[in-house]
Amino acid sequence: MQDFIGQAEKNGVILHDIGRCQFCGADTTGGVFECVALYSTGFDLIDFSNVDNYVYRFLSVDAHALQHPEIHGRWNNHFHLTRLHLILRLDYQWDYNQSPLLSNYLNDYKKDKLDEVLIPPSPLDRGSITTIDILNESKSESACRSMIKQWAISVYDSWCDYHDLVDVIAKGFLAGRY
């Protein structure tokens, strides 16, 4: 991921470094900066090097990215929402090798859709669970995995205006057009 501060500036967004996270509403004292830091260092309860836990890494990355689209590039939303759709709705077994393939597929897809933009839900309306909730409420690995899945579903559901679109993208990807 590129520097989130630079990406926010590129997007014309002023980042807050005090209070709650301005995007997801996480109960931080250091704003989005603390939210990103906690996400980057949190979830110690899960061994993400274990293949059985890979899916929780993808779900958490996608949920956090879609709650904070202002600090990412424009096509970020397509990637993360499509991957959530593939995992949550199409029960696709994602692994690390699939991410560059989806990225390549989206690069081809967007050539004919240069004006297509997935407009995020309003800040604070991008899911009911935040990184802080998971860190505060997960007392075991299984509880943490469960919370991450709930988080991902909550964020995915908040982007419901684009479910039909990402279904088309996901099915194109699965059809092997990449």
List its salient traits.
0% strand, mainly alpha, 178 residues, globular, 54% helix
Quick structural gist:
By secondary structure, the protein is mainly α. It is 54% helix and 0% strand.
Mean pLDDT score: 93
How much helix, percentage-wise, in residues?
40-55%
Total domain units: 1
Please tally the β strands and state the result: 0
Order of helices and strands: HHHHHHHH
Low-confidence stretches: none
Shape: globular
Structural class: mainly alpha
- C-alpha-based Rg, rounded: 16 Å
The N- to C-terminal Cα distance equals 22 Å
Percent of residues in beta strands: under 5%
Main beta-sheet annotation: none
- Number of helical regions: 8
Description of the structure:
The chain has 178 residues and is mainly alpha-helical. The protein has one domain (4-174). It is built from eight helices and no strands. It has helices at residues 4-10, 31-41, 54-67, 76-89, 98-111, 131-137, 141-158, 163-174. The two termini are 22 Å apart.
